[in-house]
Amino acid sequence: MGMSVTISAATAQDAEQIFRLQYLCFQGEAALYGNYRIDPLVQSLDSVRREVAEDCVFVARLGDEVVGSVRGRVAEDGAASIGKLCVHPRLQGHGIGARLLHAAESALAGQHGATRFRLHTGHRSENNLRLYRRVGYQRVGTAEGADGVPMIVLEKAAGTYVATA
User: Fold this and answer.
1) C-alpha to C-alpha distances, 43 to 6, 29, 46, 49, nearest whole angstrom
2) Which of 43, 49, 161, 163 has the fewest CB atoms inside 10 Å of its own CB, making it the most exposed?
């Protein structure tokens, strides 16, 4: 009998697994840009622990293993920033990323009062852009990451849920 992937709020005990998973998952992004100093690769474990304690963080679990995560926080203007969405490479393409996004969006709107969601991804990150478009995000601008990577900024209104496979 196989196990199902479950989505739940992260706990303090998940921080180290999130940290390791993030490092693994963002290697492909770093290679795409030839930049191994992108934020997810240089973030400290203590910083991940703080985010798990202070932000809205969800994980995908396969048994006891954390195989995906996403983080979000609501700003004073009601916009929720969602970031560091990652799914273990062996499980990508099965809807886990969309499920994590939906869980974060639901909590950020329902429990934290978010009125819209904002996220960003590298301009060459076609798989990410495809997922974000599929779940209702639209391009609203561009920005430059602190690491120099050109980013595309996407948004959608809270309550805008698109059915995903």
Assistant:
1) 26, 15, 8, 11
2) 163
